[in-house]
Amino acid sequence: MNTPSTGLQTLKAGFFRALAHPVRIRLLEALVASGEMSVRDLQRRLRIDQPIVSQQLARLRASGIVVSAKQGSSTRYAVADPMIGDLLRVARTILNRHLAGVNTLRRELARDEAATRRRPLSRHASP
After folding, report:
1. pLDDT tens digits for 33-44?
2. For residue 119, what are the CA distances in angstroms to 94, 108, 110, 125?
3. Residues 46, 53: contact at Cβ < 8 Å?
4. What is the pLDDT of residues 83-112, one digit of tens each?
5. Are residues 72 and 95 in the same domain?
6. Could you give the C-alpha distances from 39 to 34, 50, 83, in angstroms and in order?
7. DSSP designation for 78
8. Which of 33, 56, 32 is nearest to 43 (CA)?
9. How many whole angstroms separate alpha carbon 51 and alpha carbon 47?
10. Model-level pTM greater than 0.85?
């Protein structure tokens, strides 16, 4: 059996830490959907203040998840690897399945609780 090296596991952990922010996920989803975009494009599309967009893009760029290129007076951003889109789709599928299971469990628990409330209390005869 081929086990991943500690170094690779450390890189993976850093990669997932870089993804671990809702704004960064939203930025990546927008970039995957649209290709390359400027900070202003992302700001308008996601309705997020410019400093936040810039800060989160800097984190993604430092982790090698997005790349940037100067175009005139603006900078365009894109995902560094098209498989980022695949990763986001797989995560969405896994999480939707998880949420479906949680929601099913909640419905079952609510149904059981309602049935318990409807049951008449049993009366025991006194000795």
Report:
1. 999 999 999 999
2. 38, 17, 14, 18
3. yes
4. 999 999 999 999 988 888 877 877 877 887
5. no
6. 13, 7, 22
7. E
8. 56
9. 12
10. no
> Quick check: 43 and 77 in contact, CB under 8 A?
no
Distance CA 121, CA 101 (A): 32
Per this entry, what is the length of the chain? 127
- Let me know if residue 1 belongs to a domain: no
Rounded Cα distance, 79 and 31, in Å: 6
Tokens of 118: 């409807």
**How many domains are contained in the chain?**
2
Are the C-beta atoms of residues 87 and 54 closer than 8 Å to each other?
no
Q: What's the confidence (pLDDT) of residue 29?
A: 97
Q: Verify that 89 and 44 share a domain, yes or no.
A: no
Interval 59-89: pLDDT, tens: 999 999 999 999 899 999 999 999 999 999 9
The answer to whether the beta carbons of residues 78 and 39 sit under 8 Å apart is no
**Co-location of 19 and 53 in the same domain:** yes
